[in-house]
Amino acid sequence: MSKKSAWYYIVHWLRLYFGAHLLFSGIRYAATAYVPEIPGVGGEWVQANANIYLYQAIKYLEIVTGAMLFFNRFTLLGLILEFPTTVNIFWLNTFIVATPRQLFTGPQELFMNGVLLLAYSGWIYAAVKPKLEPLWLWDGERAYKPVIGARIADQHDVRDVKFKSEVN
Predict the structure, then answer these.
(1) Contact 36, 29 (CB under 8 A)
(2) How many CA atoms lie within 13 A of 20 on its CB side?
(3) CA 45 to CA 41: how far, in whole Å?
(4) Which of 13, 65, 108, 114 is the most exposed place for a label (fewest CB within 10 A)?
(5) 136 with 161: CB under 8 angstroms?
């Protein structure tokens, strides 16, 4: 994505906004132990999660993932880690509680995480390829810049794949 594109700035603004939102939500809980009043069965569910310390773990995870997004460090990992929480918030706020505040925050959370996952989805291209060869994490860089036409499967070892700069 080019810096000349308006989408570049839209995506970065969304990343900053979502990261700040998660940081605020997590830090507010860490500093004050604030749990919002949620009516009905949704409130009972949140309280049950708090009783088994799952709510607290999620809030501290929001601090970590919010920092990852806000400071643009391991952004895709932060989005992936936050996605199960996002889906839970969306479902609880939109279909279970459905008060005006929740009807805003649930879809907003899913929209921001979904759009950002889509914007960064090019980095998970290998995850959706039907067939892959083994590649160690520390050799992962080689998957992004192999010589055109070279396949890792055709090499004896992944270290045999040459970068364009190594060929010349």
Answers:
(1) no
(2) 6
(3) 6
(4) 13
(5) no
